[in-house]
Design brief:
alpha+beta, Aminopeptidase, 5 helices, 29% helix, 26% strand, disordered C terminus
Amino acid sequence: MVARPPVRILIDAMTLDDLPAVQAIEEASFTTPWPPHAYRSELESNRLATYVVARAEGAVVARAEGAVVAYAGIWMMIDEAHITTFAVDPRWRRQRIGERLLLALLGLAKDRRAREATLEVRLSNLAARRLYEKYGFRPVGIRPRYYSDDNEDALIMTTEELDQPRMADRLERLREALDAAPAPTGPVDEADPGVESAGGGPEAPGPRPKPTRR
C-alpha cells in the first residue's frame, strides 16, 4: 500500500457555507441527527453559541481543499462552557482530529473566561468517556433517560477550573504530544483491506443535547 502524504488540519469558525458538510457528518454520526435548519439557526440566532470545524488541507484532499472533516460547538452559560455537539467524519476517525478539536474548544472556553467546561455523554460510550477524561473531564452526575432515540442515561462530565495551574499544565502537555504526533494521512477507504476500520474509535460521537431549538 502506497504511503499517503500528511494532511494539515486547521480549526476554524463554522460558516453557513460549511453547513452541507456538517449535516452530512451529523447524519453519518448520530441516530437522531439535528434537522438541517438547526445549525443555521444556531449560527444566525443563538448569541450563546460558538461552532468550529476542522478543515483538512493537503494533496489527499486537493479536490476539496479545506474539506470539513469534523465539527463541534459550545454554549456559553454565564461562566460555564457547555459542549453541545462533537463529531468527526467516520472516514477520518482514529487520526486524533477529535483531540485537536477538543483542545480548540477548551481554548475557546478559557478565552471566553469560562470557569469550567461541561458535557453529556452516553454511559455506554466508553471510548468517548476515556477521551474526555484524558482532557480533564470527570463524572459529576447522571441525566436519566437523556437520549431520545433509546432513553439511555447521560453521564454529566465537568472539567476542573480552567484557569488552575494543574489543568493548564495538563492541556499544555497534551498539546505538545499532539504537535509531536504523526499528522493525519487522509480519509480511510473502508473497502481497502489494508486499512483499519474507522468505526468505534475514541473520536466516536459523545455529547448530544436533546434537539430542542429556541
